[in-house]
Specification:
By secondary structure, the protein is mainly beta. It has one domain: Rieske Iron-sulfur Protein, CATH 2.102.10. It contains no helices and ten strands. It has a four-stranded antiparallel β-sheet, with no helix packed on it. The chain has a three-stranded antiparallel β-sheet with strand order 1-10-9, with no helix packed on it. The chain starts with a strand and ends with a strand. 30% of the residues are buried.
Amino acid sequence: MSDFIKVATVDEIPVSGSKLVEIDYVRVALFNLNGEIYAIEDTCTHDGGPLVEGNVVNQCEVMCPRHGARFDIRTGAALSFPAFEPTNTYAVQVKGNEVWIESPV
């Protein structure tokens, strides 16, 4: 069973917004897609770009600000060149106003 860690409150992540958290040196980008919170590793698998700084497009994709690679926020799948490998995703639990994610370490 995975451990979950409280990382934010729901009001810290506005709808269509994002928030960066760091857990034991692992950067995790939290995204709020229409009220549903998702957590992905904040690393473009092409060159390590910060996905939390990217634009959300097509309602569920984040575009890396460096070279435009796109990732599905829900699954971590790489959707466009130049990225080929997915980024890690983490399970999310919302308990009241608290956002908890599966420990990345």
